[in-house]
UniProtKB/TrEMBL annotation:
GO molecular function, a single term: metalloendopeptidase activity
Protein name: M23 family metallopeptidase
Tree of life domain: Bacteria
M23ase beta-sheet core domain: residues covered: 225-320
Protein source organism: Rhodanobacter glycinis
Length: 381
């Protein structure tokens, strides 16, 4: 019965009211089902909607609505106009569509984050309604299409121990950055994937917000350089690299695709989940493939190897056994304290203090993924 109602809803959403004339429009697909994850205290669904223009003419997306299939009368989220276009990237590029729209045959990736209100259930299934304008000889004609039906993955994200000790540590990631983790797709085996969908780059700070002492160009002057990197769970080591050289200064050229991770460790967490640590210091990796590690065990040291703009730890979880394999999966950290955040990362670059969390606010987080640009402290020193 529910399936029948859903099919009727899709037909109603996509059928023009005044005319039964059929016409081509967008194909909507969600390649990777979302999982609800708590980020900075808010439950979110984080995923991508792929929209391909099959109309044979140019089309301009004007509004996107995300609907709960069981309660479609009120959208869970919506974006329109320039705000929507800024969430989009033409597949294989870092360019967003402009107001002239998408030519025929072009695919765009729409980056979606839906915040679920506290106390509400996780939707069973999502539907997407995309409103658009078609470019014709007579001007622009409005239309809409519903699709991209996807079942929400009801599994809980994996709970991990911190990958580092103490702090302060700045968590850098941002879905809006053109070449940020989430906007970099890899098509290595006949399918495009986003391995680092939930990746975080961890930078060490001091109490004043500085990330370096002395000459910033010398990587050993960065506060995080050489910090112990820890196993986030009892796990099996499946791959490592320990001999990739690193530049002694920030003049770091681009590296071949397969070398961008630099020195790394990959752990099998079980249940098809893998943890990846990248840009480790040469010679610092203490574990070998096949070895079993314990939660909190030192496995390497933070470094600057591979494609890195400054010494930091890149960490992500995916369903692939190698750093560039598989789809990125959400994770939460068992416990940490929030100290504040950087509303503008220019302040971080300049070594200025972060915005402190209000004194009355709760600092402790449990089973939570740090929010973008959060400054946190982990247990230990």
């Amino acid at each position: 019965m529910i399936r029948l109602l859903l099919l009727m809803l899709l037909a109603c959403l996509s059928m023009p009211v005044a005319s039964a004339t059929l016409h081509q429009s967008f194909d909507l697909q969600v390649p990777q089902a979302p999982t609800a994850v708590t980020i900075g205290g808010q439950r979110q669904l984080v995923y991508e909607l792929h929209a391909t223009n099959y109309a044979g003419v140019g089309m301009v997306p004007t509004k996107l609505e995300v609907l709960d299939a069981d309660a479609p009368e009120k959208p869970l989220a919506s974006w329109a106009g320039p705000t929507l276009l800024a969430r989009m990237a033409i597949a294989g590029t870092d360019q967003s569509p402009d107001t002239h729209g998408m030519p025929a045959g072009v695919q765009a990736v729409i980056y979606v984050e839906v915040t679920l209100p506290a106390g509400t259930r996780v939707p069973r299934q999502l539907i997407h309604r995309l409103t658009y304008e078609t470019t014709t000889a007579h001007g622009r004609e409005p239309g809409d299409v519903a699709g991209g039906v996807v079942a929400v993955d009801q599994r809980a994200p994996v709970v991990l121990a911190p990958p580092l000790r103490g702090g302060p540590w700045l968590a850098i990631y941002d879905a809006s950055v053109p070449r940020g983790h989430r906007r970099v797709m890899f098509a290595l085996d006949g399918r495009a994937r986003i391995p680092a969908r939930f990746a975080i780059d961890w930078f060490r700070l001091d109490a004043s917000g500085r990330h370096v002492r002395g000459d910033e160009q010398a990587v050993t002057n960065w506060l995080g350089y050489g910090a112990d990197v820890l196993a986030v769970a009892d796990a099996r080591v499946i791959a490592t690299r320990n001999d990739y050289p690193e530049s002694p200064t920030l003049k770091n050229p681009r590296h071949p695709l397969g070398e961008g991770s630099g020195n790394f460790v990959s752990l099998d967490l079980g249940q098809g989940r893998y943890a990846h640590y990248e840009h480790l210091r040469p010679g610092s990796v203490r574990v070998h493939a096949g070895e079993h590690v314990q939660r909190g065990q030192v496995i390497g040291a933070l470094g600057f190897s591979g494609d890195s703009t400054g010494p930091h730890l890149h960490f992500h979880v995916s369903d692939g056994a190698a750093p560039l394999a598989g789809e990125g999966l959400p994770f939460v950290i068992a416990g940490y304290d929030v100290l504040g955040d950087y509303p503008n990362l220019d302040d971080f670059d300049a070594g200025r203090p972060w915005r402190a969390l209000p004194a009355h606010a709760a600092h402790g987080r449990r089973q939570d993924m740090p929010a973008p640009s959060a400054v946190v402290e982990f247990p230990g020193k």
